[in-house]
Amino acid sequence: MFTGIVEDVGRVRSVKVSPEGGVLEVETGLDGIKEGDSVAVNGVCLTVVDYHNGTVTFDVSPETLRRSNLGLLRRGDPVNLERSLRADSRIGGHLVMGHVDFTARILQFRGSGNHRTLKIEVPEDYRVFFAVKGSVAVDGISLTVNEVGEGFISANIIPYTFENTNLRTKREGDLVNVEVDIVARYVVNFLREEGRKRRLEEFLEGL
């Protein structure tokens, strides 16, 4: 589990992708990393299989490659890194599971003064999971939703977030990983279940 507060922007040292999965190597300044640890890479929870001289190695499953932008990475690309949440840590962002729901294209990324607005596309099936002032993880960054529209959401990017994440290298058209808020996921699932129960009860009453 993570919080969406990026600890370091690492650099891809190498990435190998095949039908059987992939191997990702990332250079980082984070310390205290050991084999078996969970680290969010662009919001994707990965397990450390090797750590040596500042280079972390991860195995990446075919499912993860399919659902995220990790398979598009190239040597030198910046990636957001966050170590898993400790039980005694503050939650500076929101609870992030590291399970990407979909990749989204950046529709607009423009500045106004010291702030920028990030607008990304959202599939219609996922729109129900977003609300104004709700939370979303974009490439592992905890953001607050400012607007929910037809096929998109937008969020304000403060200068600190822009300078200390890989957002400073992003352009319109780029793909980012998106994870919906876990609380919204459970609420929507509950309401859907309740709706199914009511329909079943109405059906049985009509027999």
Q: How many domains comprise the coordinates?
A: 2
SSE-based structural type: alpha+beta
What percent strand? Answer: 35-45%
Biggest β-sheet: strands ordered side by side in the sheet: 1-2-5-4-3-6
> Might you state the CATH topology name of the largest domain?
Elongation Factor Tu (Ef-tu), domain 3
Number of strands: 12
Rounded mean pLDDT is: 92
Low-pLDDT stretches are none
Q: Could you explain the architecture of this structure?
A:
With 207 residues, the chain is α+β, with helices and mostly antiparallel strands. The protein folds into 2 domains: 8-83, Beta Barrel (Elongation Factor Tu (Ef-tu), domain 3), CATH 2.40.30; 102-189, Elongation Factor Tu (Ef-tu), domain 3 (Beta Barrel), CATH 2.40.30. It has helices at residues 62-67, 159-163, 182-205; strands spanning 8-18, 21-27, 38-41, 44-52, 55-60, 78-83, 102-112, 115-121, 135-138, 141-149, 152-157, 175-180. Strands 1-2-5-4-3-6 form a 6-stranded antiparallel barrel. A 6-stranded antiparallel β-barrel has the order 7-8-11-10-9-12. Strand 10 (141-149) and strand 11 form a beta hairpin. The longest helix is centred in the last third of the chain and has 24 residues, at 182-205. The radius of gyration is 19 Å and the shape is globular. The model has no long low-confidence stretch (mean pLDDT 92).
